[in-house]
Amino acid sequence: MLSLITWAPLVGALLVLLIPKENVKAIQGVGFLAAGVSLLASLLLILSFDRSTAGFQFVEQWSWIPSFNVSYHLGVDGLSFPLVLLTTFMSFIALIGSMGIKERVKEYFFWFLILETGMLGVFVALDLILFYVFWEITLVPMYFLIGVWGGPKKEFAAIKFFLYTLSGSVFMLLAILAMYFNNPARTFDMIEMMKAGAAWSPRFQEIVFLGLYFGLAIKIPAFPFHTWLPLAHVEAPTPISVILAAVLLKMGVYGLLRLCYQMLPAGFAWFLPALVVIAVINIVYGALCAMAQTDMKKMVAYSSVNHMGYCLLGIAGMTAAGFSGAVLQMINHGIITGALFLLVGVIYDRAHTRDLSAFGGLAARVPVYFGLMALTCFASLGLPGLSGFVGEFLCFLGAFPLWKWQTTISVLGIIATAAFFLRMIQKVFLGAFNEKWEGHMPDMTPRELLSVAPLAVLTVLFGVYPKWPLDLMNATVVALLRK
Amino acid sequence: MIEYAWLIPLIPVAASLIILFGAKEDPRSPLPWIGIGAMTVCLALAVSILWGFVSGGVALPYEKNWDWFSLATTIGGQSFVWTMPVGVLIDPPAAVLLFVVSLVSLMVQVYSIAYMHDDTRYKRYFAFVSFFTAAMLGLVVSSNILVGFMCWELMGLTSYLLIGFWFEREGPCEAQKKAFMTTKLGDSGLYLALLLLYAKTGTFQLTQLHQHFALGLVAPAAATVAAIGILLGAMGKSAQAPLMVWLPDAMEGPTPGSALIHAATMVAAGILVVSKLYFVFLAAPLAMEAAAWIGLITAFMAAAMALVSFDIKRVLAFSTVSQLGFMLCALGCGGYTAGLFHLTTHAFFKALLFLGAGSVIHSVHTNDMRQMGGLSRRMLLTFATMTVAVLAICGVWPFAGFYSKDMILVAAWNHEKWIFWPLLLTALMTAFYMTRLLTLTFLGDDRDHERFHHAHESPALITAPLLVLAFFSLTAGMAVAHDGLAARLFPKPTLSVAADAAAATPSASVAASAANNPQVQTPDAEQELPDWLKFGIPGVFVPGAMLLAFFMYRGPKFEAAEGLRSAFAPIATLLDRRWYLDDAFLALVAFCDGVAALAFWIDANIVDRVFVDGWGLLMRIIAEISSFFDGAFVDAAVDGVGGLSTDLGVGLRSLVAEGQVQEYMMYAAIAVSLAATLILTR
Question: From CA B72, how far away is CA B63, in angstroms rounded?
């Protein structure tokens, strides 16, 4: 089943290649079909996912490269399954958003579907080589998707993104090899690696940790490796921004828990004091940078830096509540920030600018758009009753017992987040109507609504009743801390 | 009926959603009546609970919890799955507040039907009001302080929406943002307090928290920090110094909405949360003292500002801040009963004052009291009800405010004389500026003949709520002060284990016995005020202050008052500029913007340069070295000496340009990896 979920988009991508590029409808149809199969299959798994066990489920294992003990090994637990769901779901949403792509549709869908396979593979792989292959696979489509369909500075943004993340992953590969050679079983199997981890000397763990962390931190993105993100977001087309924020960043945090914490406990513990400082910087500094932006998309991009800081803070707390908070925050950030990017895309499509001060008084003209935007902004700034609050609160709750002062300082980030979102709402939607847009501001189209509405519904649902996502991860999180 | 208490916050939520999504916007939509119907049901439930308790038929506190969600948590090094409950806890103060909040909200909504008609967003206004009330009711009944906090924040959201209701204008937009940000600043204190409480006790349930404190399981230092955090939250929400800046601006919203914010919901929430978590304060004497002084300072500062303002709504806003200061001061002085009693009576007369002011503004179309005067001849009902409210807030016997304010003064007297005397002075200032408001608006001659000429009494939908509220402003004090009911309705929590074990047990019978336990109810052995104060305050001082105001502002020009103003010009300016608190607030905002700009400059010019460009440079250098070795040794070894025929420099540059850097990095990486592995394993 996991193979189906993972490979369906790739099959779709190959099918797309066979269709003549004039036949846009068929290309889109195949794209939706492939992503839809993935989505449906992952939703079906919810029914049979055992919420009471911490182990890996739906495991598939075949020998792949026997000479190096590399196997094709897939499986999910409470940590990765929610992220698989997030990926299939957000990919489908982003595909709806991609209906607006008009040029080179065939290539776009091809790369997009390959990207989806790569992302899913990262979350389901249980073999480090497989993991690394999927991890690198996501880069290439992303490079093209930003570089071809992006904004004015797309080439620069794409190459910066590509080289920077690639240079990080080299160190990751290095660390993986080090772990391989030091493993008595000489295997790349992640489950074996978790068992072997305890036997490694702390010194070794620390060095390997740094190697892994370097690759992951760029992806997360953790300060000071975050500067590629605003540029990539600003230049990327809307659906790719959605994928970038909703799923790609999560790969970093997932790796931090799966690889660093589970395989290198001593190295992780050693790095903890630094991690919490990085988390605080991400939160406060990210929010401050967002406050200084005039471009809506860049502001949202910096708010991602801030939100991923919450994840890091929760992880640094080394408590079950913090870990749950981090995973939940990943899901919620994916949904909320995905919606934010879609909404920013909506206004950009109409006005061809994202400058905050170019608008004003839109609330009365586009009430539906305003309502959704306000809902999403308030969710993002952590208003209780919406999903952002729960993850954020659990992160703080989990970090507080261990890091009292650091958590206290991080609260400043929450205030700053409120400040820049409220300012955006005021500048764009309130006040007197900017006559320049008279006649150019129709409310949301059905397609736009279709892509945003499911996210808005989930935002409210998970905010009022976080039981569903939390139940998926509880057993695994408890087991993570028990060992 | 009490088993349906959990419905009380949910009914207005449902009403709000129906109103919001039920139909298209229409200035004459009938949907608002759904909100009114919902609130009537809530009021009926609240009355039945309160009456049941007063007559002895219902035992309070009543608690019932349900499972909400489960989360993995770690306490004391042990990780397990813990289930977060959600539920209702109705203690006597909650029962009273349910009644007060639903009554005031109902009156506000009836009034708004007439006041808001023909507004382009007529329907939306009622949806907001219903939601606002629901959030407050949720805070009142919640047994889980985290749920309470969620309601508290949702109240912040709805006040944001109501204050900025007319968002086309600049003023409301700024005011709504200011309100949200200032309260958010305070909220962060409460947020941290909740984190601390959970870290120390592992629960958010009020009864369990109380038990932990009663058993002395929380260290005094932690209790003090938590209490100060809670106090910060209350200072934001209840507009205490120096976070009071948002409330006077909050009147930019529709007047009935202001009435709701000022009387029953938003600002009452701060006091309510302090009272709900009062046991934390009992364990933290330092925080109690801080609360008392902050309350006192706020009460005085706000009353002083009210002395000089000519904007009728602004005077009322200052008076709200001042009265909230009284309540917080009372709570800080240990006068739990007094503080909550005043919260109740204040809700009635402050709602009445705002609605009355709204009726006046509706009629003369200005907020400036200098353009009013003599309106008693035009608007008799409004005048009569406003007079009741003014007498109540001034503390004239037998109006409601007399009893509660008297009780606060007694609490202050017993606690600290240095608090009592300024507080008494503030009470007299209250009597002065409220009489000034009444005189300027309704008495004396009409100063603006044009406006006076067009002034008229408001329709019945406006005056009827005024009459209802006037009734309660007149009688609430007497009724509650009668026969020790105040101590029964607002029993001061204790940290004694015996009383607490009973209160913490969900069993109704045990709880009832605790509620009837005289030891719990009787307030601390309190001294009465000395006779000359006890009778002198209501008999001489308060009437004196009122008469002074009446004579100073009676005439058309009030020269005496203006003379006084110019004689003390610096003080008047200080008060007009609102103690420069707003300027300080704006400076803080500007400072934050500056820091943000600096952070972004650092990001773009330093972090990006060092960690991206610098990193790229480093990679290039490594690549060049690597390819130098490659060329010098590997190629040499393979091809022999003759292999170096190509220009090395050109080759390198093309390598970097063609993106083969990566390949070399990979080799370098693998080499380093192998080396590291070998070194580390040996």
Answer: 25
How many Å apart are CA B59 and CA B2, to the nearest integer? 10
Q: Under an 8 A CB cutoff, do B681 and A422 touch? A: no
- Among B79, B146, B151, whose Cβ lies nearest the Cβ of A320? B79
* Interchain contact, A416 vs B150, CB within 8 Å: no
Nearest to A207 among B79, B184, B676 (CB): B676
- Per-residue pLDDT for B348 more than 90? yes
Query: Looking at beta carbons, which residues of chain A come within 8 Å of B225?
Result: none
Question: ∠ CA A285-A290-A291 to the nearest 5 degrees?
Answer: 95
Q: What's the token pair of residue A233?
A: 């977001």
C-alpha to C-alpha distance for B600 and B589, rounded to whole angstroms: 17
Kindly list the residues from chain B whose CB atom is less than 8 angstroms away from the CB atom of residue A365.
none
How far is CA A159 from each of CA A109, A252, A394, B413, rounded to the nearest angstrom? 21, 20, 37, 74
- A292 backbone dihedrals φ, ψ, rounded to 5°: -85, 0
Q: Do A431 and B611 touch (CB under 8 A)?
A: no
Q: What is the DSSP string of A3-21?
A: HHHHHHHHHHHHHHHHS-T
The full DSSP string for A171-238 is: HHHHHHHHHHHT-TT---BHHHHHHHHTTS-HHHHHHHHHHHHHHHHHHTTPTTS-THHHHHHHHS-H
What is the domain range of residue A306? 2-482
B213-236: burial string, b at 16+ Cβ within 10 Å, e else: bbeeebeeebbbbbbbbbbbbbbb
| B472 closest CA partner among B96, B151, B221 | B96
C-beta of residue A332 within 8 angstroms of C-beta of residue A449: no
Q: How many domains does chain A contain in total? A: 1
Q: Which residues of B touch A394 (CB under 8 A)?
A: 71
CA nearest A312: which of A439, A209, A449, A213? A213
pLDDT in tens, chain A (483 residues): 899 999 999 999 999 988 888 888 999 999 999 999 999 999 999 999 998 988 899 999 998 888 888 899 999 999 999 999 999 999 999 999 998 888 888 889 999 999 999 999 999 999 999 999 999 989 889 999 998 898 888 888 888 888 888 888 888 988 998 888 888 878 888 988 888 877 888 888 999 999 999 899 999 899 888 988 998 999 999 999 999 999 999 999 999 999 999 999 999 999 999 999 999 999 999 999 999 999 999 999 999 999 999 999 999 999 999 999 999 999 999 999 999 999 999 999 888 889 988 888 888 889 899 999 999 999 999 999 999 999 999 999 999 999 999 999 999 899 999 999 999 999 999 988 888 888 888 888 999 999 999 999 999 999 999 999 999 999 999 998 886
* Burial status of residue A412 (CB atoms within 10 A of its CB: 0-12, 13-18, 19 or more): middle
Q: Report yes or no: B382 and B115 within 8 Å, Cβ to Cβ.
A: no
B657 touches chain A (CB under 8 A): no
pLDDT tens for residues A150-198?
888 888 888 888 888 888 888 898 899 888 888 887 888 898 888 887 7
Which residues of chain B are within 8 Å of residue A204 when distances are taken between CB atoms? 680-681
- Indicate which of B195, B203, B626, B656 best probes the interface with A, i.e. most A CBs within 10 Å of its own CB: B195
Q: Give the C-alpha separation, B451 to A117, whole Å.
A: 73
pTM value is 0.90
B591 interfacial to chain A (CB closer than 8 Å): no
Residue the block writes with tokens 């007060």: B100
Q: Which helix (H) or strand (E) holds A482?
A: helix A467-482
B197 CB near a chain A CB, below 8 Å? no
- Evaluate whether B390 touches B434 at the Cβ level (below 8 Å): yes
Other beta carbons within 10 Å of B510: 15
Cβ pair A418:B153 closer than 8 A: no
Surface-to-core class of residue A357, CB atoms within 10 Å of its CB (0-12 exposed, 13-18 middle, 19+ buried)? exposed
